[in-house]
Specification:
Elements (H helix, E strand, L loop, with lengths): L1 E2 L3 E5 L5 H8 L16 H10 L1 E2 H4 L1 E8 L5 E11 L4 E7 L10 H16 L4 E6 L4 H9 L3 E8 L2 E9 L3
Parallel strand pairs: 6-7
Antiparallel strand pairs: 1-2, 2-4, 3-4, 4-5, 5-6, 7-9, 8-9
């Protein structure tokens, strides 16, 4: 478990499946994810089984939980993990709208970046963000991610951000 002032990050549990299903099937979030359509509960349960093995499946999803209530409020991900190159992709979702724009995203992202760079000894973390997703841009920049270029994802322009410990 990774802890910070107001929240903690923990492995995803099978009991989290209904909440994750709700978030993943929210069409308003599909523009910023790779989601092409609704998931089933079986899809989510399979993903949960795969997402807790960073070394075997190159991905790790952690639930973001409020320390005061233990409620799951979102998730953070490491993906495309490459131990040899010491890099990974990183993502965040504050699934509970009541927790958005209150600093929880920054706190969770900062905790995951610290874990990835200190404990996993990664040198580079990467993400892509749609230019109109101002909230995500702000928290990634606040966590010392730098824009490095523009590309296209799902036929939409995105900005690539990189956090590097080697620069």
């Amino acid at each position: 478990m990774i802890t910070s002032k107001n929240l903690y990050l923990r492995p995803v549990l099978r009991s989290d499946a209904p909440l994750i299903l709700e978030w993943e099937n929210d069409p308003s979030l599909w523009e910023v994810t790779e989601t092409k359509g609704p998931f089933t509960l079986e899809d989510i349960l399979y993903y949960i089984e795969q997402s807790n093995d960073l070394w075997g499946n190159s991905q790790l999803r952690l639930m973001i939980c409020d320390r005061n209530t233990d409620d799951g409020i979102g998730a953070v991900d490491l993906f495309d993990f490459n131990a040899h190159l010491k890099k990974a992709g990183i993502g965040i979702l504050i699934g509970n709208p009541a927790y958005r724009n209150r600093g929880f995203g920054f706190e969770a992202l900062n905790a995951l970046v610290t874990f990835a760079t200190v404990d996993l000894r990664l040198h580079q973390l990467e993400c892509i963000i749609h230019p109109d997703n101002h909230a995500s841009i702000r928290i990634f920049e606040k966590c010392n991610f730098k824009p490095t270029g523009v590309s296209y994802f799902k036929d939409r322009r995105v900005i690539k951000f990189v956090h590097s410990t080697t620069l």
